[in-house]
Amino acid sequence: MPDAQIDQMGLQAFDNLKKQKTISNNSKYNQLASCIAGAITQQTGGNWEVVVFEDASPNAFALPGNKIGVHTGMITLVDNQDQLAAVIGHEIGHVLAKHSNERASQEMAVSSGMGIIQAVSAPQTALGQTALGLLGVGAQYGILMPYSRVHESEADMIGVDLMAKAGFDPQQSIGLWQKMEQASQGQQPLEFMSTHPSHATRIQDLEKHMPQAMGLFQQAQSMGKQPHCN
Q: To pair with 117 at 20 to 30 A between CA atoms, which of 4, 93, 128, 210?
């Protein structure tokens, strides 16, 4: 689908989310999310909007049209700015890799593109729920629809490189998934039953990629990129 159509879907969905979900007034949370996202998006270019939503579930998302949403539950879960940078970098990775477009192109005919855009504003309809799912946002706001395992793994690699280039410690991405594993308390479905890679697979893949990410991190530090968002 044309990027402009996908971006319009993202903008419409994000506008709906801001109307439907409670936006956090916690100044510390907002400053933290904006600081981290700002440092990372300096590496990508473009103007990105960041909103913190009052939601206890440990989630975050990014939508086409340069929109980022972070749940308060994710902020309270992480130990430091670097772990939250791993989350935000991962979500931005989905947008940069155009995963929403790939999914939409695979599942719906281009000829119905305008119908999809209009459907996003009617999430209670079947087509509206499908359209939101294609963007990565579930039918019920706050329930995120997983991308494929290939998309998730690709976003992991893009995200860890982005955070490293911005001056965040990429090794903390491994700590993040260890925390997510603890938070799931063993309730995650077996990998072959899930579109998400298992936490163990994610950690293994990140460890393989870490030498490259650490090289980017050291380069960023030598350039004076040392974010202080905490």
A: 93
The 10s digit of each residue's pLDDT in 83-129 is 999 999 999 999 999 988 877 766 654 445 557 777 777 777 777 77
Give CA torsion, residues 216, 222, 223, 226, to 10 deg.
Answer: 80
Q: Please give the DSSP secondary-structure letter assigned to residue 167.
A: T
Instruction: Give CA torsion, residues 14, 15, 17, 18, to 10 deg.
Output: 120
| Contact by Cβ (8 Å): 122, 12 | no
pLDDT per position as a tens digit, 7-34: 998 999 899 899 989 999 999 999 999 9
The order of strands in the sheet holding 60-63 is: 49-53, 67-71, 60-63
Question: What are the start-end ranges of the E strands in the chain?
Answer: 49-53, 60-63, 67-71
Residue among 134, 133, 176, 126 at smallest CA distance from 156? 176
* Chain-centroid distance, C-alpha 215: 23
| Active-site residue, from 91, 154, 191, 207 | 91
User: Quick check: is 102 catalytic?
Assistant: no
Q: Where are the domains of the chain?
A: 3-222
Predicted confidence (pLDDT) per residue in 40-97, tens digit = 999 999 999 999 999 998 889 999 999 999 999 999 999 999 999 999 999 999 999 9
